[in-house]
Design goal:
This protein is mainly beta and about 270 residues long. Helix content is about 15%, strand content about 45%.
């Protein structure tokens, strides 16, 4: 792009100036009545061509930029749709978990020419504000775009997951366009092996005995509080630590959730 800018400057300097200053050296250009009309026309045409190339270059790359994680729009496996308005700071983000060796396929169908980056979160969690240039996201795969044609684009990106963890997909416009998108993410086996370990133990706390579950990001306990005319009334409790006080005898069910609750497992028992 810098070469195009230089050509435009040089061409217009030749047309309208007698002296050009480049790198502190003076280049004297003899421009005046002796320059033929034919040469002026040729230079004018050349300048228009170069300016066109410059505009195309700017258009092709001005919107092909990484951005911080502004929000998390979609999570887990599945097909997701949405509308995208061209922005340099707010792109659609997709976050999912996967196991090492999983073959992830990302199918993209847009009404605009798009491009994707796939990242892994080195610290294990994709968070608002994460940015590849600061090391909070690590490159895994790129795909899409790469053409100078505006309008619909359809493509697939496939990669092998290097290690178990949380991954993020950033969808961006390649040519500064806006439009609708449909993205399908498939191939993760994370939910079939979630959590890696699950346990439930009874522990003593300052408030009394408690049941402790582990292996997830959040937890929910359902406990039976009453039976009326054959119906069971259950009470739900939720927290992020997996510890629930034992306040009465009877069966319990604890559900262990992944961070975005796309995966779950259960622990059952009786107090």
């Amino acid at each position: 792009m810098s070469e195009n800018i230089y050509c435009v400057v040089l061409t217009f300097s030749l047309l309208f100036m007698n002296t050009i200053y480049l790198n502190n050296n003076t280049l004297i250009v003899n421009v005046g009545p002796q320059m033929s009309t034919w040469l002026l026309k040729k230079l004018s045409i050349l300048s228009l061509i170069v300016m066109g190339l410059l505009v195309m270059s700017v258009k092709a790359y001005a919107c092909h930029d990484r951005a911080r994680v502004s929000d998390i729009d979609h999570t887990g496996m599945g097909t997701f749709t949405g509308a995208y308005t061209q922005s340099n700071v707010d792109h659609p983000w997709f976050v999912f978990n996967a196991n090492a060796g999983d073959q992830i396929t990302i199918n993209v169908s847009n009404s605009y020419n798009s491009f994707v980056w796939v990242y892994k979160a080195p610290d294990g969690s994709v968070d608002i504000g994460d940015f590849q240039e600061e090391g909070t996201l690590a490159d895994v795969k790129t795909g899409g775009g790469l053409t100078e044609s505006e309008g619909p684009s359809t493509y697939s990106v496939t990669f092998t997951v290097p290690s178990r963890g949380e991954y993020a997909l950033q969808l961006d416009s390649y040519l500064c366009e806006s439009g609708n998108y449909t993205v399908t993410v498939s191939g993760s086996t994370f939910c079939t092996t979630f959590p890696a370990t699950i346990s439930s133990i009874t522990a003593s706390t300052p408030d009394g005995l408690a049941v402790q579950a582990s292996g997830g990001a959040s937890y929910e306990r359902l406990k039976l509080v009453d039976r009326i005319n054959g119906y069971e009334i259950r009470q739900s409790e939720q927290n992020a630590i997996g510890s629930f006080l034992i306040t009465q005898a009877g069966p319990y069910i604890i559900t262990v959730f992944s961070r975005f609750k796309e995966c779950r497992a259960t622990v059952t028992g009786t107090f």
